[in-house]
Specification:
Elements (H helix, E strand, L loop, with lengths): L3 H4 L5 H50 L2 H43 L3 H22 L4 H21 L2 E3 L12 E8 L8 E6 L2 E3 L2 E4 L1 E7 L2
Parallel strand pairs: 2-6
Antiparallel strand pairs: 1-4, 3-6, 4-5
Helix pairs in contact: 4-5
Length: about 220
């Protein structure tokens, strides 16, 4: 027979408490692992499918057809803005070219007239040179008359004509009365003498004719 003290050694109260408290911890850890390992294969596929379904629902809820319309309008706005800027730049270029062309035409507008008057000036210089060399009166007179005709031809090329005055009725738009002459020999308001010739270009009066006008006594 084994003595009671050898088969069951004495245990102090502190040690007994330690053993008793440690046993539930060991039992709990060993029993929890099989349950966790057994549940893992069955729960994972269900969670993934549910997550995919929620993602699709979220994407469908977030998609708004107005977003595509807004994007199209933004693109159209940028295109119209670009067209407007190009049109403004082209308009500025046209205005600048027209201004330059107008300034050039205004600057050289009298060039054709000057080109025609230069030969007249040459003839005047020849007449003066002939007078300095004691040319005859007849030759000088003939030269001056030739110059007068030449000037009139130049003016006619530019539609500048002399205003008819003597023998016509006084016209305040084309005549300027410097003298009023009382006479019975002519009708009232008749131009009886031209003091200075008048000229017009096309229908515009450049200078009115200065005349003497008749008046009944």
């Amino acid at each position: 027979m084994v003595p009671r003290s050898a088969a069951h050694p004495p245990v102090h109260s502190g040690e007994l408490g330690k053993e008793v408290s440690a046993q539930p911890y060991t039992t709990t850890m060993t029993e929890s692992h099989p349950e966790t390992e057994a549940q893992a294969p069955t729960t994972d596929p269900i969670d993934l499918n549910h997550a995919d379904s929620e993602n699709r629902e979220t994407e469908e809820e977030e998609f708004d057809p107005r977003d595509s319309q807004i994007a199209a309008l933004v693109i159209e706005r940028e295109a119209l803005k670009d067209q407007l800027l190009r049109a403004v730049a082209e308009n500025q270029n046209v205005v600048r070219r027209l201004r330059d062309s107008f300034d050039k035409e205004r600057k050289y507008a009298v060039e054709p007239l000057v080109s025609e008057l230069i030969p007249v000036l040459d003839n005047f210089q020849r007449a003066l040179s002939a007078a300095e060399k004691n040319a005859s009166y007849e030759n000088l007179l003939e030269g001056v008359k030739a110059i007068d005709k030449q000037i009139r031809r130049v003016l006619e090329q530019f539609q500048v004509t002399r205003i008819a005055s003597v023998g016509s009725e006084f016209d305040p738009e084309r005549h300027e009365a410097l003298v009023v002459h009382e006479t019975d020999e002519h009708p009232e308001d008749m131009v009886i003498d031209e003091i200075e010739a008048g000229y017009q270009m096309h229908e515009k009066v450049i200078r009115p004719a200065r005349v003497r006008v008749s008046k009944k006594p």
